[in-house]
Model the fold of this input.
Amino acid sequence: MLPPYSRRSHSFQPDCHGAHDAPARIHGKIPSALNALYYAQRASAALIISESTEVDPFSAIDVPTRPGLTNDEQEAGWRLVTDAVHAAGGKIYIQLSHMGRTAHPSQLLNGRQPVGPSALAAAGTVYTAKGAEPYAAPRALEIAEIGDIVAEFAEAAARARSAGFDGIEIHGANGYLIDQFLRDGSNVRDDAYGGSVKNRTRFLLEIIEAAKAHWPGNRIGVRLSPTNTYQGMSDSDPVRHFAEIAGLLGPEGLAYLHVVAPPVQPEQYVNVVDSTPAAFHRPLILAGGYKRDDAERALTTGTADLIAFGEAFISNPDLPQRWYQRATLNAADKSTFYTQGAKGYTDYASLELVAD
Done:
């Protein structure tokens, strides 16, 4: 039995340092028995939040690093995962996302182009079948199309319920579509979805409302990254704007707000979560490269209710027990993060195996 300390303070989120930290073991975007084993090995987390999972039915199946939840086969694959996690005594939410402008045209079906709130390309490169390529300029979404994407999130939320998840997390972070709407560096619209913080949050609020047709609010989490510059993201006043967004989310009765706010960050961002408890009134999860002592400090001071860990949990399936016993951690083999098979995925030793 795990100590209460571990059960209370740790969540596992393979994506908490960026969307590409989750190991690539998905074939045809359909989870397999190997994925089920991987998640079940980590069931000692207070809560598992899955890797970023696409709601876009036009995302090509040959993009190996991102699973989907848009069809019966994917739903059945995720049922393997949830059954395994529950059998091991764990709880698991699925993180639902849409890539928006960060998708490459080669990763989309039927000749579709990337879309975003505005026709502004992401900065940097995206990994494709041909290697790294520059991001393409997206097409700005029409208002009717925004409703279509809201419906895609709702469909994925319904499938998540059927697949046996304990709840869902809506991915509004790390430069993906919802984040693109939330931040004024990527959203320069002048209609009901742009301009003010309230307008830029409208898309997210509509997704939450649609998801509530399938889940109570207290089984829906939201992830945000107000200061993350990944994929060229920016905002003119992230601290103030994030506080306003948190205030708009407060009345939704959500399970939690999951914020990428590293323990060490530029001075102008250190207060990014200070106003969250008063504005949000719900549990707060922090992520962003936390170590054991950083996490303890945030929990002890009441800065957060839980801390999410990514890379450390990839290489240490029994991370809560290791930290409780102050045992040595396995080092992550990053060379295996994008490869196939069990190596560097399900073969990391637990304390019990080390003792044997």
